[in-house]
Amino acid sequence: MTMHRINLIFKKEMKSLFRDKKAILTILLPVLIYPVLLMFFIGFTVVVQSNLDEKISTVAVENNPPQVLIDKLNDHEKLNVVYSTNDLDSDQIDAYLSVAHVDGVENYTIEYNSTIETSQFAANRLKSVLTEYNEELKTSKLNEAGLEASTLDFVNIKSEELMGNRDDRIISMMMGMFFPFLIMLYGITGTYTIASDLSAGEKERETLETIFSVPVKRFEIIMGKLLACVNVGIISGLVNIISMFPLLYAATVAIPDININVSFVLLFYLIIMIIPVMIMTSTFFIGLGLVARTFQEAQSYGSILLILFMVPTFVVMVPDLEITNLVLSIPIANALMLMKEAFLGEYSLIRTFFVLLINLSISGAGIIIMNRLFKSDWVIFGGEKG
Amino acid sequence: MIEVKNIKKKFHDKKTGDFFALNDISFTVSDGEIFGLLGPNGAGKTTLLRILSTIMEQTDGTVIVNGFDSKKKPEEVKKSIGFLSGNTKLYKKLTPTETMRFFGSFYGIGKEIMEQRIDKIINSLDMNDFKDRIIEKLSTGQVQKTSIARCMIHDPQIYILDEPTLGLDILTSRTIIDFIKGEKEKGKTIIFSTHYMEEADTLCDRIGLIHQGSLIQTGTIDELKEKTGKNNIRDIFLYYIDQEEWIDDYA
User: In terms of DSSP bridges, do strands A95-102 and A57-62 run parallel, antiparallel, or are they unpaired?
Assistant: First the structure.
């Protein structure tokens, strides 16, 4: 085996790939799509949120609540209070407030629809006014009895978020889950796209016999192809990382307390974690493509394998999943879990070594299987004879 | 020189089980000779030529090409031959020049010599107009010229050609025929299979008739005419096929 010959095959495959406009578009599409999608998503969320904040909630009050409460409701700048619902279309009412007097206690009921954002907003506004009203009543009654308002406060409760702002922590966790998942998803899909072409596609185009007739070993050919496939997977993943990094950086600037460590160390770590997974998926996709008779058949088989590879990627989306030895033994999922940790600034050398060992071992097995298939006359030429 | 000794090739079929695509084939092709391999579809011509070019390995027997054993020294065999068949298609995204450079790189040809050879081949095959156009945009004739160029880049001593004119129009076929004649003049050894009896008649010094995996007859065309009392290759071919089938039926 010579690296020179593997390199020749690899370069030829890459040259052919980069002259294929469709393949280039598939790889580069995320660069164009991600920023647009995320800008659209963020813009849309901001607009919807601000519209909801600005919208006046119409609330209907029933059974004559006390005038003090009515005044407080009317004083709220985002509430429009109506007294009778008989003349009104119920679609225009966001929430209902009714009162019942039982044993000298005012029992209030808020009726709203939690699936409708405006109704939820109206209910929240009513709750805040009622809480305020309750506090005022309590203070007034205690004062009448000659007591301080704080008399009834037996316990003072103060919450402090250790990891900073709770919302920022949630955003960090979401990014830690979401970004590694997307990088892996695009990487695996990248290898799937090219592997069928490198294996079944070449069989179908009848170029295998040409390359077999020159002084190059089959193992060298298949390694050149594998290198090209892995490279495309890494490029797909990298394109995603690169297209995401400005957005991640913008997020760190916009939310100063965000707990995400966007750095070259992270970028390097992500690549190190991705490479064995790309080798693993490439070997299996190429192997399957070699067994297939046509490119389309390879794509069909590959799509089933793609789904199987997708299953462990969803592990990263499971909230609060602990990194146990079992999780570290599941290929793809193990790399993703460590990538998730890396996003939160946590690196473990032992775990990294263990995961690389497992994923590279499976890749090695994949290479052996792929090479055996490529050496088989039955796989390459079928039952063909002339 | 090519020496084929007792070649057997076994395949496995899911329905019928094991069968021999080639059964005890032996023959020799001398230096500078054109040897034609004739036989119907499925006779085993392609399998035999694939074995000679080390694309496929024989189950039993020996193949010596240019002094190298195909099993022991497959790379040396490959360096000695130029293989061309209907199944040796080219990479569509490369240009003819890139194709020659790519395939030539596997033979350890120096950069300078490679560029000289590429220029020489481009001129001799009249490829200047399309040498830098990607192959998917070339006509069938231009692709065929590129295939020949690919085959010639390492200046092999032996050519193995499997039905090189199959499915080609008369003009494109002529390119191949001229190439074979040209290489013969340079003293190259050529073994080729064909369906076209006229081609064999015009080009071959000797022919071999292959039927159901066995080489049933070899000789010069004149020798075979004399043996069979027939006037042309078509009749000679049919004569031996009929005889084989009669023997099979009798058996």
Answer: parallel
